[in-house]
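Usage

Read records sequentially. Each one opens with the input sequence:
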Amino acid sequence: MFLHIYWLVSGLVISSALRILDKPNCTQQDLKCSFQVNNCSGEGWIVPNSHSPSRPMLLPVEITKLDLQPVIFVKWSASADGSVTRLKGTEVHILDETSNQSLCVTYIFHNKLGNTRNPNGQMWTFSLDNVVVEPRSSYLVSVNNLPMGLNFKNEKRIAIPGCEDPKIQEARVCVENGSLWDPHMVVDGNKTEMIVLTFDTGPFSEHYLVSIHYPGFQYTQNVSMVQYMENRTSLNVTFELNKLQLPPCEIVFRIQPFFKQCKNDCKHHRLSFDYCFYYPRLPSYRWPLIIMTTLGLVICGFLAWLRLRASQTASEESLSNTSKAEPEDILVKGRKKVFIVYSLDHPLYRNIVLKLCAFLLAKCGTEVVLDLLDSTRLGMVGSLQWLDWQRQKIDRTSDKILILCSRGVRAKWSAMCGGEPVILKEDAQSPVGDMLTPALSIMVPHLVHSASLQKYIVAYFENVSSKDDVPSPFNITVKYKLMKHFEEVFFRILDVEKQEPGRMNRIEGLAEDEYFHCSSGRALRDAIEEFHAYQLDHPHWFEEELIKDEFLDECSFEAFTRAETAESVITKSLSELNFSLSSMNNQSEHNDRKTRHFKGPASTLLYREHNVDS
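and closes with the structure output:
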């Protein structure tokens, strides 16, 4: 066993977060003792049960604070029997069940215990009280006497509470997470057409998202301490209101801080406010007048719409079936970005990924980040720095990471968990190499944060992959089938709910039986069908893509010739994107249904609302 669990992938080392604050002192009267950290016992310590000391008596494991750090206190005693003379040391193994990281501390005795009890007449007792742990984690603590027999260990499990628990609320890691922060939110509604929210700032947060909510409305302001010259202990946030559209009586204010430790996963604070206390609703006798006025405006608007509709009938009949299938040209506000993570399983699968990028750009107006499309910058900074840079940019925005699972993803994840190493021909011959393995190494540790899960979209192409290709850490998320669930995937990218109270939202042209009506969608469908047909003709296609270590140098030499081919494929795909964008900008569609429009600089989407009976 090793004290640290090293995960070495393309030069990336992730070490255990478990650590010891101070050196333990295990020496007692009539016993000279030393300790070793990260040096768990090997096979040399295992002996038959008849030659090993008895099992240690492990007392309850407790949690406490040491130097403002949450630590666990482990205490055990040696059995007061004749086997104590065979006791040569004790091994304490602590496993973090949340991250599967471990720590090992070994006490080694340099002299033989002559008596079953210590000079004070009590049982020989030892302890370890300075192992730093993390809030909201579960640890398995096991203690073995050395030399150890079979099944002679004693173990206990301890769950560390969250920072709201008084035991660790004042620990440094909790204070930096805002455990002691109380914003003391105060609302002032006396000012005309505006509401002012005042709150106290936290010592470890310089950035806040302050939101106002009521049914059908949400508005958020980004407040930063950097914009103020002096260090302020309180901030005022002003929200302007429109008297013609008075909000309901109850308004909810929410503050999301960004502390050093929890970042975008910090605890939110909410406050309800009664708006009607300051601005009572209109008297009942005014409502008939308002209703009649509104009804007259609706009738006038309907008559104007009928007249405009009649003038457009001739132009609508001239549109072809293809142009009718395309959405209306409406620019979307705020262009979304998605970072695609995948495995280079096969040249045909690489073609599917590139066609998917073309479809996202041309049809969906979504900016795509792909290693093959950024090979120049990737070659300058290196794969690990490039991947971590992309992840940090997404953490600061509402952009998403799309993980395309396939046979190669399943095999590489198995290799990362201790299985057989996997080297694919496409990885060895690609100018960027294997980007999936370091990407998973960077992303998997962030999945323990609930807020980080919303950043990841896990999907696979149903006709060429299966749900068994999804790595186990992503089983806690929704797994989408492409292109069957592509519309749901795009809703995730937009941060929009598909089902809302009273209606179901739809995006025309993205359903499984519609996406191939445009040129980029047809190219994507053809690429999927081509790879599917290849798999049927070659049942062992994936095994044929695997290469052994002795052929790696030969494949690396061929990479120079294949790089030019890869570059030509990328150039061709980018040309198709530009062609698709220009084609879609020349098309239009008039739809009779109620629509909501998203505006984006590169494409047009028709976003429909279907009323649902309650």
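Summary fields computed downstream for this record:
- DSSP finds 14 helices and 28 strands in the chain.
- Residues 1-16, 314-333, 552-571, 576-614 have pLDDT under 50 and may be disordered.
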